[in-house]
Amino acid sequence: MSVNQAFLAVTAALTAAVTGVYLTPSASAAPPPGSTVPSAGSSVPPTGPTVPPTGSTTPSTTAGIAPATSAAAPATPMATPATAAAAPAASTAPPTTKPANRLYSYDKTLVPLGASVKVELKSTGDSLWTRLDVSGLAPGHAYGAHVHIAECGADPKAAGPHFQHHPDPAATPTTPSADPAYANPTNEIWLDFTTDAKGAASVNNTHAWSFATNHWPRSLVLHAETTKTGPGVAGTAGARVGCLTLNDGH
């Protein structure tokens, strides 16, 4: 198995649910920091990552939004001596790959509390298959969705520009590619969708290329509008309303 194929196997299924404090100015109705609600069908607990079982190729992770004010908080909850002594051995916990991914919401209307996102990436030879499943979003809304080059953060800009198979040489960190020759659904991964009456949708596509070693996307970003294709605006899709960091398994 090549490095590229190994990466895709590890990242075959990434799931996250919006379950924490909104990263928007309005956070008065948010639950207490640290609360999580796993996505439907997930058996992974909200804490305590362990090594995945032998032969597993499609591990999944669940996550909640981190509080915007939690930067100084410890990485894991602090336990008293009594609770620490009573904690079960790590080997008894269900398998997972890494600490929970975070699904950031930048718009509480378009990515409400309880929304969920699942991304799948699969590769065979020189082809790439991508699937996006969402639920709990705004009903009947048309979203843009693309994979980006950097991990998500409290700032919607943290994910950087779109991932491109062949990067636009004219693009800069401050001026992302908007040239249709590069910013297009063949050279980038676009997963635009319109939700149904329950806020759910599924979309998939294929590409005649696969990720090169050390060149793969780090996040999936949801946008408020569908993706434009004209000169100077190609690849743009309005405000960033949500972001899921893609775990590369390393």
Automatic annotation (TrEMBL):
Signal peptide: 1-29
InterPro entries xref list: SOD-like_Cu/Zn_dom_sf, SOD_Cu_Zn_dom
Listed Low complexity bias regions: 36-45, 53-79
Domain of life: Bacteria
Record domain Superoxide dismutase copper/zinc binding: where: 118-243
Record-linked SUPFAM superfamilies: Cu,Zn superoxide dismutase-like
Name this polypeptide is given: Superoxide dismutase, Cu-Zn family
GO annotation terms (biological process): superoxide metabolic process
Family, similarity comment: Belongs to the Cu-Zn superoxide dismutase family.
Organism (species): Actinoplanes regularis
